[in-house]
Amino acid sequence: MDMDYILVKKMRMGDEEAVEIFVTRYYARILAYCQVHVSDRGYAEDMTQETFAHFFRTLKQYRHYGKAANYLYAIASNVCRDYHRKQKEIVIENIPEQEDVNAGDPESRMDVQIAFERLPEELKETAVLYFQQEQKQKDIAVMLGIGLPLVKYRIRRAREMMAAYISGDI
Questions:
Q1: Among 28, 36, 118, 160, which is 20 to 30 Å from 96 by CA?
Q2: What CATH number is attached to the domain comprising 65?
């Protein structure tokens, strides 16, 4: 039986330990996702909290069709979109640190992060889920409510744009 299904069932019955396990299981991934969309860690943490708060507010209506992470990413995506809608201009003050120590030297990681930041929002969202969160393409399609061919196109286009930026072609 699916661990998320069991946790959701226990959370609906008021099991606080299940809530703790669920949040611990997904908090870091949702925070990393939000931090890519907002360079300020404090805002990213607020957005992560808002994502979980929304999940728990709608827990009774939640229908478990697969991975709860997909639903959390969909909520986080909406929270990020709302944040950007409220902002007239986003100023990049600092770039979030990446925890992947195997990604090469710091300069290369910085180039990759800046390349991510330069992507158009719809490409960035898909690229973050695919490259950084290592989600499957079909899961990304479900999370974003778009077709699989569009997900594949966005991943290919993001890869091309990032490669061009890093190589200095744009």
A1: 160
A2: 1.10.1740.10
